[in-house]
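Q: I'm writing up a methods section and want to include an example of the input and output format. Could you take the sequence below and give the corresponding predicted structure tokens, formatted cleanly so I can copy it straight into the document?
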Amino acid sequence: MEQVSHLYAFNHLIIALVALTIMILVARTIVAGTKYSSLLVIVVAGLGLGALLVSTGMAQPGLGEFPVIVLVGQTTVIALIASFFVGGQEIKRLLSKQNNQQADCGLFVPSNKEAFMGTTSTQLAYIVRGFFLLVGIQAADVLLSGRAASATLGDSFLLFAYVCLSIGFIFVDKNAKSSNKALYLRKGLVEILAIIVVLKLSLIISQAVSTVIGLPQIFFAMILSSGLGMMLPKWKLGPTMNSLLFAGIPLVLSGGFLVGGSHMIEAFGIPGLQSVIVYGFAGQVFWMFGGLALLIFAGKANYLRNLAPGMAGGLSHSGLTGACTAGDFGNTAASRAPIMINVPFAGHIFVFTILAASAEKGVLMVEYTIPLILAGAACVALSLKNLRKASGCEQTEVKGLMQFSLGWQIMAVFGSFTMLSLAGMSLEHASMSASSGLSHFGLYAAVQEGMFGATAASLITFTFAMTFLVHPLVFGMFGKAAENGGVMARKGVATLASLGAMGVLYSMMTI
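A: Here is the clean output for your methods example:
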């Protein structure tokens, strides 16, 4: 019977591979030939399919019948480690005034041959390899941390790690050109081992300090991966990092949306959750378009190269992060996004320490959050001043965006928690509201890890995914900007920012 159980486990692996990769490929086909991001389609498709699986009786809320899909949705930290590493590299180059040398590397040249409409053969290889890497690295991490015994697929994790990591190591696009394929593959193996080490060390450190303060694993993974990137600014990315940068976040979101959609029907009956969702929707509009309004009207930075990475970093926004790193908004936005994602690292020191201490007390420590909100506002004001005088200078624009990412991050996170707590929402529900209202990947991972309790950990996939229904509007505006030479519609942004502000006020009154 043991052999049969392993066969069932690998059936789930194949089902997850097919379901998630098809979702991404269909999404890319739908937006092919346009300036819109495929994540726009993944949002709706994932939520709809998750709800449909439950409504037809194929699964129960939480998709326990599809454990590998659930597993992929829990690999948030792995996908972010790749972004943090590249962000550390970019920051080091910026500080040392080195040019970005990634493009000069002839070790691997992607193929432009189309495998499916909107997806080249190299991109297809990234998606497939990315899936196996996420599952394989997660399986290896679970085994090394001793969590396999309590996991649904515990008995099969060793085989999962072996098969998935092996495929993730050897699978490359045969149409791509490489001056030294053996070296390129070995770099991928080194990157796999490095990610596993970062995961293991970050978990050890998190557990070691848990008696003092309950900082989540992602906090230390961010420190280690960013620091590693700063130590290795000349490292040319191998197949592992390239795959995770391109497909890691879309795959994680696809799995998360499917799980979140499965909770859709039952979740509306949970007392107090309606207030969480209302703020999630209102916050999505307010923090996104409020930030865009500041960049456009006060910073005079109405160019997609500024807006996309600025808001991706300013909110640690999962959707824009994935779209930027996948190259949906151009090469400049793609190169700037890792920097802006890493810059709020300084702010995360306050975010996770204060929130962890608040979680232990069961109430938000407002005496610390209000001064930080004021400091964030000052940082935003300074950034807008620098952006106004940039006049197209790349170095000044990047400097201004770094300051904006830090300041807006602090304002958005602590502003959300403070408003919700003062309005009477519990800290557990506020954690779901804030992470959903910002699409904040770091908070999402922390809540998912159980930082704010078991209830929030089980429901965060739903609340986080539900508010992604606003993303067609977000990506629609960014898509139109891309078609308009990179310039965002000013009146549309102003209108949406105003509506978002009214929505946030309304959500405060209904708690």
